[in-house]
Amino acid sequence: MSRYGFVGITINTEITTGIEVQKILTTYSHIIMGRMGIPAVEDGSISVITLIVKTTTDELGALTGKLGRLNGVNVKSGLCKV
C-alpha cells in the first residue's frame, strides 16, 4: 500500500558530489511527488534536498538505503500512518 511521506537528505559536498545522489533520485523519480533543494548552505559545504514521496515501506527503504550508503550523505525519512 502506497503512503505519503518525506525524505530529508544532507550532502557534505566536500566528500561527495550530488551527481551520485541525482542518479539514484532519477531511478526513483516515479515515487517523488515534489522536491526542494538548497545548495551550499552556510559555508558551502552542505547541500540539502527534501522530497515528498508516495511509496511503499519497502521502496522507501530501498531508496534511503542506496542514498545512505554514499559517503558524506545523511538521510532521514518517514511515512504517514494513513
From TrEMBL:
Report the coiled-coil segments: none
Q: What superkingdom does the record give?
A: Bacteria
Note the Gene3D superfamilies from the entry: ACT-like. Chain A, domain 2 (3.30.70.1150)
Q: Cross-referenced NCBIfam families, in alphabetical order?
A: hyd_TM1266 (TIGR03959)
The protein's name is CopG family transcriptional regulator
Source species, please?
Answer: Thiospirochaeta perfilievii
